[in-house]
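This follows on from our talk about sequence and fold. I would like you to pick a protein and set down its sequence and fold. Go ahead and set the record down below:
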Amino acid sequence: MARAVRGLSRGGRRGPGAGRARGAGVVALAALPIAFLGVLFAWPVVAILRLGVTDGEVSRALAQAQTWDLAAFTLGQAAASTAVAVLAGMPVAFLLARVRLRGAGWVRTFLLVPFVLPTVVVGLAFKALWPGGGVATIVLANAFFNVAVVARTVGGLWAHLDRRAEDAARSLGASPWQAFRTVTLPALAPALASSAAVVFLFCSTSFGVVLMLGGGRYRTLETEIYLRTVELLDLSGAAALSLVQLAAVVLALVVGGVARRRRERAAPLRAPVTTARRPAGREWWVVGAALTVVAGLLVPILALVVRSLSTRDGWGFDGYRALAGSGDGALSVTGWEAALNSLRTAFDATVLAMIVGVLAAVALVAAGRARGRAARLAGETLDAALMLPLGVSAVTVGFGYLVTLDALPGDLRTSPMLVPLAQALVVVPLVIRMVLPVLRSVDDRLRQAAATLGAAPVRVWWTVDVPLAARSLAAAAAFGYVVALGEFGATSFLARPEAPTLPVAINELISRPGELNTQLAYAACTLLMLVTAGVAAVIDRLRAPHVGEF
């Protein structure tokens, strides 16, 4: 590690030796993330996909109308959810970036709560509002998750835009809408495209929401892969559908990556150049729309709390009292034991994800600063590859573990570390997206100055990079922890019956008959929601302003 950091710290030397040292440092730092991605993602996924290829199932699946119906519904509901999230997120982005209003800081913090809520919690919240489910409910639930992505990503860039350009257009006779459309909107296009691509990716791979609200009538590629793998044991058919899903995911990642690079170049780390001010005139309509969206996001959360206190005999705390029991025999452990299992596995997953994610971010920064085109291309390829776990079916990855990991020493298939490894695979891309923009914003001249004053390479990194990125590192750790805490897709497939996590326990409870089981599930959801809300508040206080994503 010291040699790798030494190679990255010699920014002031321009000879061939310095270039080779920098290249060696990049390779050394990238070794662990590449190994992590290869063993825990590429190997299991390729092993499962080969089933579909070798059995000839891909051609048969592509020839079936059902496959294209599933793909059409998956992409259609994802596109509709993305459109709703963008339309709802834009006025909130304006509120965060341009408006000085009492309570705006709390709005920013609250927006993060829906994004980090576990999918089973959101599914139950919307089920409490609309018990019948349906397409509209699925679209609204997915949009509920992702309004924060649009509002915070677009708002972060919007705060950096110079307001004088828009004022100049107004002085030349343009209406407020014309000034926004011709001046502000083109400047926001990179952030808007990036956030829309990320939202589309999340919605197209949505699992828990569709599983709970689809009611068996509506299935996406993700839920169909789960059905064929777990219930029908049709591994070849599931592998074929995974290939179709992977193609859509790669396209979304390419679009998002291009837009993200444009945004990072457009908005380097600095204080916002505009000062928020009180809205005037028609701006109040936009503020009103933003506050309406925020109030709408609060409705499912309140519905969940109300449902957790509602019993056949009126109001009561039966579900919360049942957390100390086993849910009327539905679970092999108590609700509190399931919660402790979640806390332990989330901690292990976060530690692993932070190690891999920070090393990957440092390597990507070094590759981006390298002079050679090959090094920059390798960095961009690694960046895209590390995002793939967000878009590949968690069921595919989970079953791939059971197929392949027996070849490793110790047989990880029976290890309690299997669930944290799967959760870390999901958390690593999010850690990178939060840390990478901050590390890229650090002026390399600061490192050179510290080295000139005699600081050793490791001390340069410790005294320059770490203090500047400390808040984002802490926020990334907290964010990763809460995401791992609520991870449901892979965990539902890998968790052992005697050690379920809380989201897995909630799903099991809601699928079993009995009023007490239902009450316990809603009480557990409320508890999980309160924990994630608390962590979301910590994240927002720790993060550097207007930096990173989500």
